[in-house]
Amino acid sequence: MTFPLRLRAARQRAGLTQQQAAAALGVSASAYCGYETGKRQPDLDRLARLCLLFSVPADELLGLPAAPPVSPAEEEHLARLRSLDAHGRRMVRLVLAEECARIAPAAGQGRLLPFRVSEQPAAAGMGAYLGPEAFRCVLVAEGRLPRGASFGVPVRGDSMEPAYHDRDVLVVSDALPEPGDVGVFIMDGAGYVKVCGRGELLSLNPAYAPIPMTEGIRPCGKVIGVLREDELLA
User: Fold this and answer.
1) pLDDT tens digits, one per residue of 162-214
2) Which residues, other chains included, contact 155 with Cβ-Cβ below 8 Å and sequence gap of 6+?
3) Pure H helices in 144-216
């Protein structure tokens, strides 16, 4: 339905004639008639007055999609939000932003890709067993996997903070880490995520001393990204 037809229907529901509507708006009868024939368009001020005169929402008169109704629970949330001080409102905005970012990969970044993640963590600390036996397949939003991603390894410990944190999932490529790169290594039966040094594995956290490399060290790959646990969909 076009605007002129919606306008005419709203006027008729209000029980007014064109002449009465024109008089209430302060325009001539011919000018108002032009609104209902499509020869004229009301300005914003007269459009607002038409909505009040005919008791019709502006989005309905303009043919815009109606806003979804607000549920009682949403009204309660809004009332609580308005009762908060500036600090409380700021904390709510932070939580909302974090939650919107959390669901964005699944909701708005296109297709999901299968991705292998080790069930055995690499330690950002003193080492943990990391073997090839146990991998699980998860789904990750396409936009969150960098080019060259091969597999994921969970982090345990804090020796690689502030770059990587406990329970992060590292995205690892098949490329071998060069000195200065962060890589995943197996050494003496334990798995590490460390900076590749010259003859030693280095931590980013200064509280941890370098670990000398042994002859049997095996690099598993170069770290090229990081995911949060909640970005992995089973």
Assistant:
1) 999 888 999 999 999 999 999 999 888 888 899 999 999 999 999 999 999 99
2) 121, 122, 123, 124, 164, 165, 166, 167, 168, 169, 170, 193
3) none
